[in-house]
Amino acid sequence: MKKSLIGFIIGLVLALSLTLFAGENPLHIAWILMKSAFGSSYDLGLTLYYTTGLIFTGLSVSLAFSAGLFNIGAEGQLLMGSIAAALLGVLFPHVPGFLAPILAVLVAGLAGALWALIPALLKIYRGSHEVIVTMMMNFIASGLTSWAVLQWIPNPDSQNPESAKIASSYMFQDIDFVKKLLGDSPASLALVLALFGAFVLWFVMKRTRWGYEVHISGLNPSAAERAGIDVAKIQIQAFCWAGALAAGVAVTEVLGNSGQFRIGFSPEFGFIGIAVALMARNHPLGILLSAFLMGALHKGASDLDFETTTITRDFSKIIQGVIILFVAVQSYRIFKKRGSRVS
Amino acid sequence: MQLKELRAETLDFKLDISSLEVHAGEILGIAGVEGNGQKELIQLLMHPKKFKKIEGHLEILGHDTRFYSTRALRQLSLGVFPEDRLRWGSVPSLNLLQNFILGYQRKLLAAKKFLPWNELFKICAEQIKKFNVRPESPLALFSSLSGGNQQKLVVARELYLNPNLILASHPSRGVDIGATEFIHQQLLDAKKGNAAILLISSELDELIKLSDRIVVLYRGRIQAEFSRSHFNENKIGAAMGGIS
Amino acid sequence: MSVETILRLATPLIFTSLGGFLSERSGVIQIGLEGLMLVGAFVGATVAFGASSCWLGWLVAFLAGVIVAAIYAFFVIELEADQIVTGTALNLTVAGLIPFVSKILFNTTGSTPTLDISNRFFWEPIAIALLSVVLIQIWFSKTNSGLWLKFAGEKPKALESSGVSPRKIRWLCSLMAGGLAAWGGASLSLFLASSYSPLMTSGRGFIALAALIFGRWKPWSAFLACLLFGAAETLQIHWQGQSVGGFMIPVQLIQILPYIFTIVALAGFVGKNSPPAALGRPL
Questions:
Q1: Quick check: B39 contacting A, CB < 8 Å?
Q2: In this predicted model, what pLDDT tens digit does every residue of A118-175 receive, in sequence order?
Q3: Residue A286, C-beta contacts closer than 8 angstroms, at least 6 positions apart
Q4: Residue of A215, A222, A342 lying closest to B92 (CB–CB)
Q5: CB-based contacts of B93: which residues, under 8 Å, 6+ apart?
Q6: How many CB pairs under 8 A join A and C?
Q7: How far is A222 from chain B (nearest CA, A)?
């Protein structure tokens, strides 16, 4: 994690120095990033909203990584989870208040898990590479959810590409102290759920037999099998849980923020989640920090559009790209130093 | 352990073993040029599910294991020295403790949903001491150990519960002389403790030194069998080349 | 829906798919096709505008693709960084850099200035694409050096022992892949449209990858797959907002057809589908 932080800082410095070419003062840009990410309680709330989403997708990518699988599909899984929650919330408005949010969380998680089950099964039983399959399934999820929103639950009061509002019983506004604390910003109680998720995953990976088996399956499947671990089963399970974790974004967005499915709502939570997991080196608690940094970066950069005349919000992508590169090369170094290759 | 009239096929190899039996208190050596079915024999014993077809009699510690999963096999009183410790027997990037419970995660001391790391740590530290693994810390990385110490840790793990059957393939491969001596002594001690031991090796010296009987494997079949009083390097060598 | 329309829409896919073919057959996964296309589209349009010459834009786009691919190749071949992770980083960085450069050059993060009709292609990219398919197919299946490509991705060790360096083959193919994918992007901005607009590739890099997989890593079949996916795109444009007997044609569902085809192909449900054996493995 320390090395990743150095990577983060190098990426930030590199990207900031680029702004010199645009005739900007890098320190000024850095100041705008800071101000925009943490300047007001609303800004902080928005930062935490992104953080929440990134914790979920970061955990998702990380769990799959631990099992030796690369989950490029968090984006699709979170879309399927979100559409499931939106469909439930719009089509079944009479579910009692205390039950509704819990039901919605479960349904969203289930949808994400099922969407992840497809590539997992194809990987194990047909040998199809999970990276390509999940990548394709992201596009499929995007098309399917757009279609489902406009076909089944379009918003009758608006021309925007979005769904109708879900019943208010699904939104846990009454008990949402996070939202109250941050002045009705997009942040919500989902943040607490994400934190809880990170701690649970940390505990599971560290202390349980299942976590141990996931770990071994990912690092050395042959040794895992010899040790009596059913690698196929473990990998399928881990990938489904990864899908369920990604679907946690539904809680942030659909239940905690907008109360509807807005087409294109995700600022590529799934992809930034890869950077988050890599930066945290798969440590569930490290993900909290890296998600916060990436969330702040994303929120900070979003104001560059109107705070400067030369730099745009896409700026954050440069930093993310450099960080990922840095981590990719570092893992190579560690690899070489140990001088051992795990098949 | 007993194999009789056993025919087993993977996609690219056929084992055809008329009779192979290891008794308690005995070391049975398997000789042969590599690639003549040693690897497949271990696979058959440990991963029967990977085989396309298994016909005949396959009995391990009184169980018909033709349809056993590896997990079920691991519940038996069984120790396995892997044919390639880095591939089949360890996770080099993890520490000794994590490597020590490999295979035990569903057995006895760890047969719980939550792994009792503190107790496991104590056991691991004791075994490390007993088997003279260097460095002595259970938290050292497996990959940082020398080949001999890596193998000693694997042996310490596999012998921890005093198994009734030991499948030892290439126990001294990539291991220094001192550690080799040590591991050989462990095998002889286990034999004295009435364990049945199947020893696969490509080193004829090692086989002759330790085995009570030697069976030569050639193209997936048993080419010849020698009892201790008839050990003869030339004859065994000839059998390994397919001449009987 | 004419053959010409399909060919036009398939052209960017064909170039990119061929690029992907070279890279992946030599053993290097190229997830960054999308980013390389964007580079080609942007550089092509910018140079063509600046120099009032689409041919110069076309040429420089290729070079730009080669340069970006060289950075990628350095990371994955020399430093042995994970290819998928590095490819993801490539896509992200490019998506971040282009608006930045565009803002500096044209003071806008939107489209580049519109090209004059005389500075655009009419049909030339189609011809180049078809020619490339034929040349690469012949090279791959009929020549000795085509065999090297196969071996670099299947059995690099064997190639090495026969005196040919798989490392060189991978480098060469990665660079060519960058240039071809950039042409894929340039044929968008210089041919199908008249300027670069943000994210104009809209996932075509991935569709090209899909076509390559659907075509089982063979140039000719990948070309046919590109035509098929080009036809799907034509249909989708054609049917946009139309209804048949009161039933709205679900455009989004036609959009996802290529991806579904690819997954079905990848799962090996239609014939055997196996990627190069050493794909993604460093030397």
A1: no
A2: 999 999 998 888 988 999 999 999 999 999 999 899 999 998 999 999 999 999 877 8
A3: A1, A4, A279, A280
A4: A342
A5: A219, A338, A340, A342, B141, B142, B143
A6: 142
A7: 5
